[in-house]
Design a protein that fits this description.
Elements lengths: L2 H8 L5 E3 L3 E5 L4 E5 L3 E4 L6 E7 L6 E8 L9 H14 L6 E10 L2 E12 L2 E11 L3 E10 L3 H14 L1 E2 L15 H8 L1
Antiparallel strand pairs: 1-4, 2-3, 3-11, 4-5, 5-6, 6-10, 7-8, 8-9, 9-10
Helix pairs in contact: 1-4, 2-4
């Protein structure tokens, strides 16, 4: 039983704070994201979770930002290799055979990044996730948007708006040949 598993099952029942179309700023972790009017901030027990949002009425979709120490080499790794790494991380937390439907290098908050979409079964539901990673000098950010598979395409404009609203002023980007540090938070956000 991992912190990731606990958070996934905890999310629909978590305590929350309702906000209406405002920005959420995490000064210590140096990022900002816009909270859509129909979303709420969830109090999450995981230490590296900067923010966890969920739909007020339905619980899905969800969006979270996890901040992990160390670099993520988005520009220097091939999309196939990055996709396989994320797929393997899902396997490490007990999600068997996640299916990758899209993978691409992107720019997010003016930085190099990588985004992958995966579908998988969890708790009797078919879910689809968009996992986006980007790096600063001393940390990297993992942004994960999750919805039920049948609602994902309808929610895509919301997913894109959340990614577009993400802004970080952390460090100056350096994309060097240093391996990112693995952590439980890496697995946590990738799973979500």
């Amino acid at each position: 039983f991992s912190i990731l598993t606990a958070t996934l099952f905890y999310l629909p029942y978590a305590q929350h704070t309702a906000l209406a179309d405002q920005s959420f700023t995490h000064w210590d972790l140096q990022f900002r994201v816009t909270v859509p009017e129909n979303f709420e901030i969830v109090q999450d027990p995981a230490p590296n979770v900067g923010v966890l949002l969920k739909h007020k009425e339905h619980g899905y979709p969800t969006f979270n930002v996890v901040v992990v120490p160390g670099l993520y080499k988005a520009a220097s790794l091939e999309p196939k290799l990055q996709s396989e790494q994320i797929q393997a991380e899902y396997g490490q937390v007990g999600i068997n055979s996640p299916t990758i439907s899209a993978a691409e290098k992107i720019k997010i908050s003016g930085r190099n990044g990588f985004s992958v979409e995966l579908s998988y079964e969890l708790g009797g539901q078919t879910l689809k996730s968009s996992v986006t990673k980007t790096s600063g000098v001393s940390r990297h950010y993992i942004l994960t948007f999750i919805d039920r598979a049948e609602g994902f395409e309808k929610s895509r404009p919301l997913q894109q708006a959340l990614l577009a609203s993400f802004n970080t002023w952390a460090d100056k980007e350096i994309d060097v040949a240093e391996e990112p540090k693995q952590s439980r938070a890496d697995l946590f956000i990738t799973f979500l």
